[in-house]
């Protein structure tokens, strides 16, 4: 340690660990603790050196406001407690607020349909990520839910569209289908069907009638072409 470090520690001890006779009656609290560290202790004991709120503009504002003083919307202030104590109090209030909605929503949700998208071997150590780009869209005019997604591995050139009616008791035709981006974007008829194949980088609904996709040329070379295409659902 340098002399500067020793001086810094000595000044710290001198400032924060002076004897405090007024604390002698408190078990184990014979010295003033460091004023920042006391807020970070995970315990319910009162702060040894609580902050001085005199002149605080926010507290003065609350005292002078008859409407805000007793408002249930303001979180109570605990000037004698640490931040850990306040954090636990706030978490308890938030959990209580969220419990009822969670119960109601949980009881109202049930499985409408189950579709098997792919199967993998149970012997594999790591499960590959085959499901990508899930994007949800709700057509309020027709009361339909849509899910756009792609499947990796052997179907990178396809985008899948899942469609369900918002009324789970009703079904719609072609509940799930796939659109393949092959060679339909070729500039001329002379190009071979294998020369220009595209995979989907991203896909979103543009509106109720149109899907926007970002395509990437699948050939292994520099300067791969990117295409922004809009496809009508029809």
What does this molecule look like?
This protein has 234 residues and is an alpha+beta fold. The chain is 22% helix and 23% strand. It has four helices and seven strands, in the order ααααβββββββ. It has a four-stranded antiparallel beta sheet with strand order 1-2-3-4, with no helix packed on it. A three-stranded antiparallel beta sheet has the order 5-6-7, with no helix packed on it. The chain has two domains: 3-108, no CATH class; 135-183 and 194-232, no CATH class. The radius of gyration is 32 Å and the shape is elongated. The termini are far apart. Strand 1 and strand 2 (144-151) form a beta hairpin.
Q: CA-to-CA gap between the ends? A: 76 Å
Question: For the CA atoms, what is the radius of gyration?
Answer: 32 Å
Strand order of the largest sheet: 1-2-3-4
Strand content: 15-25%
Bulk shape: elongated
- The count of β-strands is 7
Into how many domains do the coordinates divide? Answer: 2
Q: Tell me the number of helical segments per DSSP (H or I, 4 or more residues long).
A: 4
Profile the largest sheet: 4 strands, antiparallel
Proportion of residues in helical segments: 10-25%
Mean pLDDT: 78
Helix/strand-derived category reads alpha+beta
List the uncertain runs: none
SSE ordering: HHHHEEEEEEE
Write the layout of secondary structure elements.
Layout: H1 3-16, H2 57-64, H3 66-69, H4 83-108, E1 131-139, E2 144-151, E3 158-165, E4 176-180, E5 198-205, E6 210-217, E7 226-232
Antiparallel strand pairs: 1-2, 2-3, 3-4, 5-6, 6-7
Domain Anaphase-promoting complex subunit 4 C-terminal half WD40: 136-234
InterPro entries: APC4 (IPR024789), APC4_C (IPR056358)
Keywords: Cell cycle, Cell division, Mitosis, Ubl conjugation pathway
